[in-house]
UniProtKB/TrEMBL annotation:
Provenance organism: Mycena chlorophos (Agaric fungus)
Cross-referenced PROSITE patterns: G_SEPTIN
Entry annotated with the keyword Nucleotide-binding: yes
Name of the protein this chain belongs to: Septin-type G domain-containing protein
Keyword Nucleotide-binding among UniProt keywords: yes
Family under the similarity heading: Belongs to the TRAFAC class TrmE-Era-EngA-EngB-Septin-like GTPase superfamily. Septin GTPase family.
């Protein structure tokens, strides 16, 4: 297959309610300034309806044939990796959704390295992001990283094919993997349910991790309910329909997006017919933030560390250690207590010095007072003695009249 990451981007404006503007306030506030942005990629065997599903999501025919089809081929095939982008605006909240269409594999006798171009695209996009992170002049980063990889499984009803297992094994630690059963209209309801079960156990048996919707403690009941419904429905059974050829629903008479059969019609937007709505809600509503977060914090971070180590850069892991809020609060409290103790000791020192100075001053006054007292006492004793002496003289003069004048 000819693969190159096409630089051309097909831009499309889609209208209609999607639901991303109803995201929890906290999430909304975080992203509302710059608008939301999500990039998903479709991967899988040729002819499973990847391009059709993209058209259904974007509601118009934008995945055009890139090459004139071979006369023997009845349908145009995707021949290059291509970005299809749409700006959606709801209640003043903007979302830029990009879906990357890829050529299907399985057309060749040897499909042994069919994952190479896909892995290459994922890593090239990580590389482009890393370059921006490492650049001296840090501008606002353009994030083209793939946040979700929708992997199309052929509706065989048996088990996963070796090629699917091999492919997904190479993808699961690079990108959020969302497996879907393609063309689910070709299977009965029971067959879909059985096939889902078999796929889930095949994935577990082969150690393939698919994207699991996280459930947070502070999630409201509605969000928990939605996450559980989505988790139960994976791998989603999807049906794609050409959005330009709407059909009339025999029951409601409305024009619907679906597929018509001699025995009836399937409506892709009817949740009882297929999981298309769940897949779209997961991408642009309930799990958009979780997909972005896991890409940034786990998948890209792991890839980046390996890449840096490969380049000979040793990383100081302590810088990236997660901070436990309770531990951080304990450390802060201990530091605060130590600071208080230091201040108290300094204040005690100042107080002691002041008391000592006052005591010394008092002692000095006491000494001076004592000296003065002594002096006064001596002066008075002297005066007393003089007076006594004088008295005696007077008394002795009074007894001897000769001495009288
Ligand atoms: N029955 C059924 N047919 C489908 C569905 N989706 C697409 N098709 C048909 O399957 C054929 C292939 O669809 P594409 O969307 O071109 O498939 P693709 O996966 O993009 O193929 P490549 O580009 O070769 O990888 C077309 O004839 C579609 O009309 C579906 O859900 N059910
Ligand atoms: Mg295609």
């Amino acid at each position: 297959m000819t693969v190159h990451d096409s630089s051309s981007i097909v831009r499309k404006r889609i209208t209609g309610h999607v639901g991303f503007s109803n995201l929890p306030n906290q999430v909304l506030r975080k992203s509302v300034k710059d608008g939301f942005q999500l990039t998903a990629m479709v991967v899988g065997e040729s002819g499973l309806g990847k391009s059709t599903l993209i058209n259904t999501i974007f509601n118009s025919t934008i995945c055009q044939p890139r090459e004139v089809p071979h006369p023997a081929e009845e349908r145009p095939k995707t021949v290059a990796i291509e970005n299809i982008q749409a700006d959606i605006e709801e209640n003043g909240v903007k979302l830029r959704l990009t879906i990357v269409d890829t050529p299907g594999f399985g057309d060749f006798v040897n499909n042994s390295e069919c994952w190479d171009p896909i892995l290459q695209t994922i890593e090239d996009r990580y590389d482009a992001y890393l370059k921006q992170e490492n650049s001296v002049r840090r501008m606002k980063k353009v994030d083209t990283r793939i946040h979700a990889c929708i992997y199309f499984i052929q509706p065989t009803g048996h088990s996963l094919k070796t090629i699917d297992i091999e492919f997904m094994r190479r993808l699961h630690d690079k990108v959020n993997l969302i497996p879907v059963i393609a063309k689910a209209d070709t299977m009965t309801e029971d067959e879909v349910a059985d096939f889902k079960e078999r796929i889930v156990s095949d994935l577990a048996f082969n150690g393939i991790r698919i994207f699991q919707a996280p459930i947070y403690d502070d999630d409201d009941d509605e969000s928990v309910g939605e996450s559980e419904t989505i988790a139960r429905a994976i791998p989603f059974a999807v049906i794609g329909a050409d959005p330009t050829k709407t059909i009339r629903s025999p029951s409601s008479g409305r024009r619907i997006r679906g597929r018509a059969y001699p025995w009836g019609v399937v409506d892709v937007d009817d949740p009882s017919h297929c999981d298309f709505i769940l897949l779209r809600r997961m991408l642009v509503h309930s799990h958009m933030e979780a997909l972005r977060e896991r890409t940034q914090d786990v998948l890209y971070e792991t890839w980046r560390t390996q890449r840096m180590l490969g380049m000979g850069v040793i990383q100081d892991h302590s810088v990236f250690e997660e901070v436990d809020p309770a531990e951080k609060a304990r450390e802060d409290r201990l530091m605060h207590e130590a600071k208080l103790a230091k201040m108290e000791a300094a204040m005690k020192d100042v107080f002691r010095e002041k008391v000592e100075a006052q005591e010394a001053k008092l002692k000095q006054s006491e000494v001076e007072l004592y000296a003065r007292h002594k002096e006064m006492k001596e002066a008075m004793t002297k005066q007393w003695n003089q007076l006594m002496e004088r008295k005696q003289q007077l008394e002795s003069g009074a007894q001897d009249p000769r001495k009288k004048r």
